[in-house]
Structure formats: structure tokens, C-alpha cells
Amino acid sequence: MNRNLVTAFGAIASSRLAIVLISVAFAPLLVRLLGFESYGAYAAVIALFDLLMIPVSSGVISGCRKYIAEDRDTAEWHSYIFAYYFRRAALLALIAMISLVAAVETGLVGHIYPHAYTPYFVLLAGLVIAAQFREYTRRALMGLKLEHIGEPLNVVYRGVFACLALALAALGFGVAGVLVAQIVASLLGVVLALIILTRHLSLTHLLKRIPDSYPTTAMRSFNYQSVVYIFLLASLYKVDQILLGTFASGDQVGYYRAALVLVQFLWFVPRSLQSLLLQSTSDLWANGRTDVIEALATRAARYVLLLTMLLALGLGALAPVFVPLYYGTAATPAIQVLWILLPGTVGVAVTRPLLTITHANGDMTVLIAATGAAAVINLVGNMVLIPPFGPSGAAIATTLGYGALPLFQVWGARSVGYRPFKNARLLQIGITTLFSGIGIVGLAVMLGTTTFETLGSPVVWGLHRTPLALVVVPPVGFLLYSGLAIATGAITVGELHEILDRVPRPLGSPIRSFLP
Prior knowledge:
Blueprint: H1 5-68, H2 77-105, H3 108-112, H4 118-143, H5 147-170, H6 174-197, H7 216-247, H8 250-263, H9 268-286, H10 290-327, H11 334-360, H12 364-416, H13 426-447, H14 452-455, H15 468-488, H16 493-501, H17 505-512
Helix pairs in contact: 1-2, 1-4, 1-5, 1-7, 1-8, 1-9, 2-4, 4-5, 4-6, 5-6, 7-12, 8-11, 8-12, 9-10, 9-11, 10-11, 10-13, 10-15, 11-12, 13-15, 16-17
InterPro entries: Poly_Biosynth_Transport (IPR050833), Polysacc_synth (IPR002797)
Membrane topology: Multi-pass membrane protein
Main location: membrane
């Protein structure tokens, strides 16, 4: 398969879209089967697990992707890099598993959490091993620039996990059943990835000593610094849920988690770019191509901001009718939380590609400082605002932390030698967002909760109780926003043609036919 940035992004984006669709179907069903209190318990446990996996997983994954992507003349480079980080991944996962079991056996878990959480931590010990090697093997495929294989494996994992989790939850196994489903789906992902890797690597190198000529000192340093950086970054996404679980009731955590799931759908495209850019820019940094990096960063930031602002306007405008329909009427408190989270979510979306580009540089000091500053704002804000204001306080603090991230990361990017918003056309995007936002929000408010049934119009069966806004606002909003984006110069027709020319014809032709 011929690989360029567009085809690689297409492979990643299509898989990410499939994952989003799975999540869209999975989340409300799981909420209904578990109930908001159990769903809140699951959210709190997984948030803690994700933080635990940072020192266990993030360094080896980042290091493997960075170094295995570099095409060096050293014989058997890829196989030795995979073996080096595989051993570290195994050791760290084993330590984490033993630590979790010890926390359960010594009563530490029961002292901190409700007694009902104890079985969950036993299952987390098994999930550490399964999740570690699922992500390591898949990210190794990404580092080898086999995105068209690595990302579909993630779709398989997500699909199997969703089906098993819903089945076990429906049978009454609750949160424990969901965790078992995650373990089984992860192990399946490991097996499939290893089968594919054997065609591109020699797994016998797992038993061989790494040659002295390999830059193991630099690799270890990058590994440790990556752990610090990713811990700070992940704290932005997890500390709110952990602290909220300490100070608020289970159903409040459930409402908050429900809102987070929805706003994080806005990260679909930025996450796809992140999965691509680490291995794609490592070589550019190694060869001193900062001009190419700057052009790539600017275009990525502009396209991400354009798309994310459109999605944020639509989600914010439709939240009053969409959230109750999606989660049930009991989820109405999540609407206010969602609105508060949206501005910060947009800030993180724009920053995600830049984080990866700066990370690929290998000089982690500036990246850690910039991310750490935003993490401190987020932590302090959550500690101050959650006790008196609950989920709304968590949302305010989190959106402040999220919003600070792009400001600090722009400074970080300039410090390592590139300007991420050079010619990003921020004024044009701002004008597009302002005027289209007035139209989109105004139309949604005007339609309100009106349904097809209310109008008494004949419609397709099953849509009679669907809010009219959900059918009318998305296409009208898209056309209005797109027209204004072209009119203001936020994006040009030529740029659209350039993108579509690199997209496979079956996907690009329908859109191309509408362009002048």
C-alpha cells in the first residue's frame, strides 16, 4: 500500500470514525444497563486505571513509535527496537499488576474506596497486562507506518469490547462484567497484532541482547521524560473525574462522565492526526526540516480548528434536545456541564496535533513545562471548585485547564523552533464561527423541542417523535458554516480540491462534484 500523509490519515480517520460510531451506540446502552451510579463507579475506576497506565505504558509506547519509525542503516534496527521496549513493557506491567494485588490484599483499596470496588481492582490487575500489550503491539504497527493495519485492530478491539460488555451487563454482571469484557477484547487484540508483526519483525530478537551501538541511553531518557509529560497531560483528562468521585455522589459523576463522552467526540480528527504525526515528523526533526514541520503544523491547526468549531456549535446548539434523547431524560443535568466544557474542549482539539509534533522533536523539557503549567491550573481549579459546585465546578476548572493548554503549547512550539499558528487565518475562522454560530444557535432555539409529530406532517416511521432540530440544524448549519468559511478565506476552494485529489476517488468524487 502506497503511503503518504493523506492516505495514512484516511486509514486512521476511517477507523476512528468507526470507533466513534461504536462509542455512540455503546455509551447510552451501557448507561441504561448499569444505571448512573454504577456507570459513575466504572468511570471513577477507569479514570484511576488510566492514570496508573501512564508510568506503565506511555513511555514504552512513545519510545517504540518514535525510534522504530526512524529508518536507520543499523542492521535489524526495527526488530531490536521492538525487543528492547517489549521487555520494558513486560517488566512495568508485571510491577503494576503485583502492586494492584498488594493494594487489595493489604486493605488499602477498601480503606480508600467503598467495599464494592474491591473486586474491580482485582480485575484491573489482569487488565494491566492485557491492555499493556494490546497498546504496545498496536503502536508498534503504527511506528512501522502500517496505520492501515494498526488502526483497524483498534476497531476490532472496541467492537468486541462493546458487544461483550453490553452482554455481560445485561446478564447482571455489572461493572465487573464490563472489566472482564475489556480484558478479553484486549487479549484478542494482542494475538492479532503479534500475528501481523511476525511478517515485519523477527520476534526471536526478544531473546537477543541489544547491541552496544544502539542509543539505549537516549531511548531511556526519552522514555522517562515521556512518562512525566503524558502523566501531566492525562491529569488534564482524569483528575476531574477522580476528585469528583471523592467529593460527589455516584450519579453526579455519571452525569459528568456522560457530558465528557459527548464533548470528547470533538477530538475525533485531532486524535487521528496525533496517531499519524509522531512517526511522520520524527524523520523531519532528525533531518532539520523545520520549514516543512511549520507548514504541516499550521495547516493541521487551521483544519482542526475549522472542523472542531463547526462540531462544537452543532453539539452546543442541539444539546437540550439531543442529550435527553441519547441518554434518557434523567441525564438532563449533563447539559449544563456539556456547555461549560465545550470551549476548553476546542482548545485541546487544536493543541493535540501540536503536542505530537513537539513530542517528536525529542527535547521534552519545554513540552513538560508547558503541559505542567496547564495541569497545575486544572488541578488547583478542580480542588477549589468541586467541593462547593460539584459537576459544574469540575467543568469550569477543567475548561480553564483545557483552555490554558494551547497558550502554553504555542510558547513551547516556538521554543523548539516552529510557529504553529503562522498564517493559520484565525481572524477568518473567528468571523466564520461568530456569524454561523448566530444562525445555527438561532435555528436550534427557534425549533426547540418541536417534533415531526407536533407538526402533524407525514414522516418515515420511527421519526415521528424525533425533534425537528436534529434533522434540520446539521445540514443547514454545515452549509452555512462551509459557505462562510470559503467566503472569508478560512479555507479556499483550491485547498479543498488539493485535499480531495489525494483522497481515494470513491470518497472524494461526491464532494468534488459540488465544488466550482
